Amino acid sequence: MWREDRLMRMTVVGSGDAFGSGGRFQTCIALASDQASPPRVLLDCGATSLTALRHQEIETNSVDAVVLSHLHGDNFGGLPFLVLDGQFRRRTRDLIVVGPPGTQNRLEQTMEALYPGSSTVQRRFDVRIVEHLDRQTVEVDGLRVTPFEVRHASSDREGVAAR
């Protein structure tokens, strides 16, 4: 899907902060393997991302993977809604989530806090979690992601920058 000799298309779906300053949606960047293809990968999925994706007319069931930089709500909070959207819109392709250590647990806890029982319901698709480690490259459908720890206003050490 991803080839080094081609340009990819990047759509900034959201670039706002945690509080929607200036009316902007929270962090979500959609990546397509070329200029003509629909986006297949999201870099971050903030709490407002589902609304922002619809605003940009991006088909959520075409998203194959979500790469999370860290687990703050404005970067991660839309993921439970993306999963539930797929469930109710009859998604059949698996969704791959690449995130820092603790992603699996955080997703399950968040889904249970929002909608009890939603993390264990049987779906037509699997949500496959791949937890990344600092400076260790992960490949998702031909897209290589190398996380680097960065300083971020948080008491934890889960912030990364992908290269």
Would you report the number of β strands? 10
Oligomer: single chain
Return Rg in Å: 15 Å
Tell me about the biggest sheet?
6 strands, mixed
- Overall 3D form: globular
Quickly count the helices: 4
Uncertain stretches of 5 or more adjacent residues: 155-159
Q: What string gives the helices and strands in order?
A: EEEHEHHEHEEEEE
For the termini, the CA-CA separation is 18 Å
Jot down its keywords:
6-stranded mixed sheet; 163 residues; 10 strands; alpha/beta
Fold topology:
Layout: E1 9-14, E2 28-32, E3 41-43, H1 49-55, E4 65-67, H2 73-76, H3 79-88, E5 95-99, H4 103-114, E6 127-131, E7 138-140, E8 143-145, E9 147-149, E10 160-162
Parallel strand pairs: 3-4, 4-5, 5-6
Antiparallel strand pairs: 1-2, 2-3, 7-8, 9-10
Provide an overview of this structure.
The chain has 163 residues and is an alpha/beta fold. It contains 4 helices and 10 strands; from the N terminus they run E-E-E-H-E-H-H-E-H-E-E-E-E-E. The strands form 3 sheets. Strands 1-2-3-4-5-6 form a 6-stranded mixed beta sheet. A two-stranded antiparallel ribbon has the order 7-8. Strand 7 (138-140) and strand 8 (143-145) form a beta hairpin. The longest helix has 12 residues, at 103-114. The relative contact order is 0.15. Mean pLDDT is 89; it is low at 155-159.
Short description:
It is built from four helices and ten strands.
